[in-house]
Specification:
This protein is mostly helical. The protein is 76% helix and 0% strand.
């Protein structure tokens, strides 16, 4: 059996209640910061995918592509816009699923091209 040379082999009689108190407490500000970061990420990603979908729809409209391609890009952009709104309101799990669905609709539009 090999172990790290810097491992501590000190006594294992630690006060279990004190250890549980140290491990179980979290700073509430950390959770708020994580939630804020998740909201910003969902809203920013949704906005970026919305702009990309609208740009792709406009590019497909100017070329001789089937009408289904720009419609799929525009529909995917609308779904991503809804995800950005949900993400900014704190519904990040639903926003993630909508972002995935919107990207899949835009990928389907790429297949029509």
């Amino acid at each position: 059996m090999s172990g790290r040379p810097d491992s501590d082999t000190g006594p294992e009689t630690v006060d279990s209640e004190a250890a549980a108190d140290q491990d179980g407490t979290e700073d509430p500000a950390d959770g708020e910061e994580d939630a804020r970061r998740a909201r910003w990420t969902a809203a920013g990603t949704g906005a970026a995918l919305t702009l990309a979908g609208l740009a792709a729809a406009l590019l497909r409209l100017t070329r001789s592509a089937p009408a289904l391609a720009p419609a799929a890009y525009a529909a995917g952009a609308a779904v991503c816009a809804a995800a950005a709104v949900l993400g900014s309101r704190g519904r990040t799990r639903r926003a993630l699923w909508l972002l995935v669905a919107g990207a899949m609709v835009m990928a389907l539009g790429d297949q029509f091209d």
